[in-house]
Every structure is written in C-alpha cells, then in structure tokens.
Structure prediction request, 322 residues.
Amino acid sequence: MNFYLKLLFFVLILLWVLGIFIEVIIPQFDNLAFLYPFLKIIYSHVCHQQPEKVLSIDGNNLLVCSRCTGIYLGSLVASLILLFVPIIKINNIKYLILATVPMLIDVILYSSGVYSYSKELALFSGILFGIAGIIYIYNGLQILLAEKRKGKN
Amino acid sequence: MKKYLSPLIVGFGAGVLSIVPVAKSFGCCLIIPVAAFIALLLDQKANNNYSKIEIKKGLVFGLLTGLYAALFGSFFDFFITFITKNNDIVATYSELQKVITEFPISEALKDEVMSILAGVVEAIKSTGFSLLYTLSVLVNNIVLNSVFGMLGGIIGVQILNSRSRKNLD
Prediction:
C-alpha cells in the first residue's frame, strides 16, 4: 500500500471521527449546525446512542457510545501510525481475537450484571478493537493489491 | 444469482436486525461486518469448498451484503414509519430541539435548522413520509452499509483463510 492510499484512508477515517464530535465543533464553526440533524440520523444507524453510554465533553455529547467512539478513535490512531510504519504481513487471526476478547468480556460482564456499564472500560476495549481492526483491514488491502498484481502478470 | 445467494439471505437478516431496537443496541456498528463474514461462511458451507478465498471475493460479498441490508433495512424503516407515523427522529425531536437551542450559534441559524427539522417531523407525523428523511436514510444506509460490509468482508476472508490454514496444518 503506498503512502497516498494510506493518507486517503486516514483522511476518510478522520472525517468520520470528526462527525462524532459535531456538538463540540459547532460552537467553533456555526454553519455546521445544519449538519447536526443529519449526522444524528447517520450515526444512529451505526450506534444505539443510548444517553447513559455516550461520552460528553464540556456538556456536549458525542454522537456514538463510548465503545464505538473507542473503535473509531483506535482506527484513527492506528491509521495515523500506519502512515509512517510499513504494514507487516499477518497470516493468522490471533491478534484480532486477542483484541476482541476484552470487548466481549466487558459486554458479557456488564450485561449479566457483574458490574455496571463503565464508559472508560468500553472506550478502552473499543480502542483496542479499533486498532486491531484497522491493521487487519490494511493487511487485507495489501493482500488484495498483491492478488491484483499477480493477476496482471 | 445462486452464486450470491448467501449475501442476499444474510443481508436480509442484517436489514431486519438493524431496525429491531434491542438487537440494534447489541450489534451496534458490528451487525453489517459480522453479516459479511457470515455470508462468506455460508457460501463456503453451501459449496463445500474450504480452499483459500481471495480478498476480492470478500469485498464483493461484503458489498452485496451491505447493499442488501441497506435496501431491506431502509424498506422496513420506511414501511414502519409510514404505518406508525413515528420513528427515531420523531421520538427524539424534543431532545434534538433542546440540543440545538443550547448551541452557541446565532438565533437566525438556529431557526433555520429548527425549521428544517420541524418540517421533517411534521411530514412524518401527518403522512408517515418525508422526502428529506427518506433520501438521507437511503443514501446513508447504502453508503455506510456498503463500506462496513466491505470492511467485514476483508476481515472475514482473513479469518476464514486462517481457519483453512489451520485445518491444512
């Protein structure tokens, strides 16, 4: 994967993440207020947006829950790092499974009432999953490009 | 058509799940990527072919699963909205109003945003249909579900190939 393709992915993920923070951004850029109702609809299709699970900054709520925020922030951080770090070919799925385990354990434990929902835990487990997810997506894209090259030859 | 039967079946299921409130909150943004993976898994089982899958196939299956889920999900959403004259936007209207009035922006801008929103809510309450809502949901579902489906397809192929490698070892 070349730098420009990775840069494109980073910009797309950045725009997606900025959308989550629209309530925080609007006071700085008034005209973006028009986007608010539409972004609310858009993000409602990828997240339940339950108020008690949503993070807020200075009283401004984010448009997705803590876990989804974590997933997208993790993806953003990983895509930023991968801009400058070459992608290592991964042949097995164990790192993705390892990154998913904390999220699954958290969901199972709070759903069964062992402890109450923790925004911090959800955010952290989401970040882990987001980082692993983007690494595997990049890995897959690298394999796809190799398949294409092989097809051409 | 038979070649792409599993994305159709799983896409239908994902479309239904994406509008069921409880399932929606459990699945969150993972419904579509997981659906793309299941579509690939079903295809393997149906054809009894466990050889290495190309990422390209994962992308196509993910895209189709996402598109089917978007079409079915949107259709069910519009149908339920039309019958009940109620949906998430109507239900959260007062909350949205509160948020917008609290924005530190000019009153004129607030009024314009509120009038757009009020128009959508009024149309849904009176006729069960709003063109702006319909278009935004349809475009949003098609774009988002396709992207999430393709991402699920890319990861799904790697999971299935990893399993196949293990079986060969």
